[in-house]
Amino acid sequence: MAVPELTVDMDGVLCRPVSWFNFVISRNIVNSPVLSLPARDRPRYHHWAETWFGQRIRYAWRPPMPGVREALASLSTVRRLVLLSGRPETSRGATEEWLQRRGLREYFSEVLLNDRGLSNAGFKLAIARERDVREHVDDDGRVAYFLTKDAPRTVYLIAWRGNAGLPYPSGVKRVTCLGDVAARILGGPGAEWTNGQTVPEG
Fold first, then answer.
1. How many other C-beta atoms can be found within 10 angstroms of the C-beta atom of residue 43?
2. Beta-ladder partners of 58
3. Running along the chain, 202 residues long, what does each successive block of 10 average in pLDDT?
4. Cα torsion through 190, 127, 111, 56, rounded to 10
5. How many domains does one find in the chain?
6. Is residue 75 domain-resident?
């Protein structure tokens, strides 16, 4: 029997976001994500932040979220873990280096980065459809909303203030951290699903 696949976001799940309080979370649940772009419309990453130097300033310094290594070790015993991030493919070197340095790369069978020029939600939804993803971990309200509206999926949503209070489908399960996800999937003790009041910032 095949081991079920669990896709896991990176920023705000494995590592602290650029802004300490995660201001970049999207709450847009009105406009459906675009799932494909003509090649001529795909952005070219020439901005300094996408250069080798810019990527290291943007990504390399950021600390991991508490307990992620232990949580991944537990999850890897019952799930095939795939890192699914909206980061551009041009950041692969910096991303892989961060994972290796933190001792996290060994837990992931694949690292999927955004090579399509889509939005964060659009890229993840496209991959979820292609791979028939049934379980995902994220911190973005827009991603959680559209993944669970699209198909009978479970999205474990790390409970930041920025993603509280949206009318999520029942497939969205708000949790305080990746360790809570491991506790739920393994059937062990863990915190109750949050109501939006308990968040990592606090």
1. 11
2. none
3. 93 83 82 76 50 64 92 98 95 94 97 95 98 97 98 97 95 97 82 40 40
4. -100
5. 1
6. yes
